[in-house]
Specification:
Blueprint (H helix, E strand, L loop, with lengths): L1 H5 L20 E7 L9 H5 L8 H9 L3 E7 L12 H13 L5 E2 L2 E2 L2 H18 L4 H28 L18 H11 L6 H30 L2 E14 L4 E13 L4 E3 L4
Parallel strand pairs: 1-2
Antiparallel strand pairs: 3-4, 5-6, 6-7
Helix pairs in contact: 5-6, 6-7, 6-8
């Protein structure tokens, strides 16, 4: 059993525990076939009791490598577990079903059914091509491809829906502000608070920021263009005179004032 659990160490960082652990610890379910003479249900836990036989390191490793341990003794094999089944079979079934209630998490992200299937397929493909599976690839598939990328697309879509690009000829709004960015950023931070792969979270954050920047840039430029649309024009006229010493000649000048939606008034020169 110690050798089997040690096989998980082939994946780097797999032995990390706590909030930074990229992979969850497994639940250990030990099933004893009581048709084997001399075995009882409590014997397994007895083998993990510390004693002076040189194997305490293995015992500690087993205990530290699993999230929980349960032992089941089955007197015989039944074709199915249903009404009237042996209570020991029912206990095993209930334990296994209960273990499926908590979602499987990799890098802090809960795996969906399609996400788990994709992870397994890519894992086998990588193993066949390279004869090895890198932890980074597994975590990226589960965390970024399966969780962060869809999250970014969802939040970016909601941001774009709340930040439409103003159409030409529309109303000019002075002090046009990016009012949806703060809420979108807060939603991202809340959704990723349990993710234990900070470099992937940062990559997703930059992707989200880029999409919001692009959208806001389009909206802001469109509003700027609306502000430059002409509301009306007005012509002004002026009469001056030119003195010839003995008489003065009238001179007429005019100019045009252009009024824009952004409130600017731009006069031309007198001519």
């Amino acid at each position: 059993m110690g050798s089997t659990l040690a096989g998980r160490q082939v994946l780097p960082q797999v032995s990390m525990q706590g909030a930074k652990a990229p992979f969850p610890l497994p639940d250990l379910r030990v099933v004893l076939n009581l048709q084997t003479p001399g075995w009882e249900a409590g014997d397994f836990e007895g083998t993990l009791v510390m004693r002076d036989d040189g194997k305490n390191d293995v015992r500690k490793f087993i205990k530290d490598s699993v999230a929980s341990r349960s032992t089941f003794d089955l007197p015989f094999f039944g074709p199915q577990v249903g009404p009237g089944s042996d209570p020991k079979w029912v206990a095993l079934r209930d334990e296994l079903v209960a273990g499926t209630l908590a979602p499987l998490r990799v890098g802090g992200a809960a795996l969906t059914g399609p996400g788990l299937a994709d992870l397994i397929i890519k894992g086998f493909d990588a193993a066949q091509r390279k004869e090895e599976v890198h932890t980074r690839s597994i975590i990226r598939t589960a965390v970024f491809d399966g969780f962060l990328a869809p999250l970014v697309e969802k939040l970016a879509s909601e941001y774009k829906a709340g930040t439409p690009v103003p159409a030409a000829g529309g109303e000019y709004r002075p002090g046009f502000q990016d009012t949806h960015r703060h809420a979108t950023e807060a939603a991202f931070r809340e959704a990723t608070s349990q993710i234990t792969a900070p470099e992937l979270v940062e990559e997703a954050w930059q992707d989200l920021q880029a999409q919001m920047d692009e959208r806001w840039g389009l909206a802001k430029q469109a509003m700027h263009n609306i502000g430059l649309e002409v509301v009306r024009t007005k012509k002004e006229h002026m009469q001056t005179g030119y003195s010839l010493g003995f008489a003065s000649l009238p001179i007429y000048k005019s100019r045009e004032i252009v009024y824009y939606k952004n409130g600017q008034e731009v006069p031309s020169g007198w001519h």
